[in-house]
């Protein structure tokens, strides 16, 4: 049986992970073996457990102990700490309202290499400096649903294991393989060596249509999306094999990066023979 602890002292060090540590402190780059992340909601926690993530502790409303927390706790060590308190106390402690009344602190898993992520992939997404965690989560959800086999990110972008990103993704950050691209080498050339043709999403007059036969027939394709507002860097666009854009009407010149990802993944993933991950 889990170790149930009713919260009486907000200052107890065991609650620092939920109430006082910043995202940078959780990532703990100086000591990656002890890095943590916070999963929010039973769905996200369950998918994290299924992917092999190791739980450290739980924080939840007491009513969940006899309902939606039960199947999660059954998959955890019997002595795992489970901190409980009323919703208003949890909101005061964490500073936000808990989605479905449950959080879980987990060890950050070791990330695979780019080669490992791409080994069996036909369609991948590349996110260059996408900063908003809500967009990251939405893109991962689209990737899982619309035929992307993996996601690669630049280190300057938002963390897929950030609490909001994993929640918005509906836990799909634990289902779609992902890793960071190395900063020391031009990544378009690295992907080319792995057999991928690269497709930059950019607003240019010479861009191809999404259903261009060359793209639809490509054996391996990397769909490259850029940061909010500025989009892809000129260097990245120049280094990619193709540039594509989404045709739009009524004078609209661009879509939110997450919305654009859904359109691109559907056409270049599912419609080109890709399969949902």
Automatic annotation (TrEMBL):
Keyword Cell cycle: no
Alphabetical list of SUPFAM superfamilies matching this protein: alpha/beta knot, L30e-like
Keyword set, alphabetical order: Methyltransferase, Transferase
GO molecular function: RNA binding; RNA methyltransferase activity
Domain of life: Bacteria
InterPro entries: Alpha/beta_knot_MTases, Ribosomal_eL30-like_sf, rRNA_Methyltransferase, SpoU_MeTrfase, tRNA_m1G_MTases_N
GO biological process, one term: methylation
All copies of domain tRNA/rRNA methyltransferase SpoU type, residue ranges: 124-266
Annotated Pfam families: SpoU_methylase
Residues annotated as transmembrane: none
Record flagged with keyword Chaperone: no
Protein name: rRNA methyltransferase
Gene source species: Vescimonas coprocola
């Amino acid at each position: 049986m889990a170790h149930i602890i009713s919260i009486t002292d907000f200052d107890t060090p065991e609650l620092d992970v939920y109430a006082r540590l910043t995202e940078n402190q959780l990532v703990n780059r100086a000591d990656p073996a002890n890095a943590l992340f916070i999963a929010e909601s039973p769905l996200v926690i369950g998918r994290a457990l299924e992917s092999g993530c190791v739980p450290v502790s739980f924080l939840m409303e007491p009513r969940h102990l006899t309902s939606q927390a039960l199947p999660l706790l059954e998959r955890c060590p019997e002595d795992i700490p489970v901190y409980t308190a009323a919703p208003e106390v949890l909101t005061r402690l964490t500073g936000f309202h808990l989605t479905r009344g449950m959080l879980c602190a987990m060890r950050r898993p070791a990330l695979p290499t780019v080669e490992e992520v791409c080994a069996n992939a036909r369609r991948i997404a590349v996110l260059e400096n996408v900063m908003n965690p809500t967009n990251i989560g939405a893109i991962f959800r689209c990737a899982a649903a619309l035929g992307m086999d993996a996601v690669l990110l630049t280190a300057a972008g938002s963390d897929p294991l950030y609490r909001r990103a994993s929640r918005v993704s509906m836990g799909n950050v634990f289902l779609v393989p992902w890793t960071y691209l190395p900063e020391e080498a031009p990544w378009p050339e690295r992907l080319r060596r792995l057999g991928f043709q690269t497709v930059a999403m950019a607003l240019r007059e010479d861009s191809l249509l999404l259903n261009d036969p060359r793209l639809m027939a490509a054996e391996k394709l990397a769909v490259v999306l850029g940061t909010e507002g500025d989009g892809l860097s000129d260097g990245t666009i120049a280094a990619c094999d193709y540039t594509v854009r989404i045709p739009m009407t009524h004078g609209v010149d661009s879509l939110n990066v997450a919305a654009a990802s859904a359109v691109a993944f559907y056409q270049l993933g599912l419609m080109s023979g890709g399969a949902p991950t």
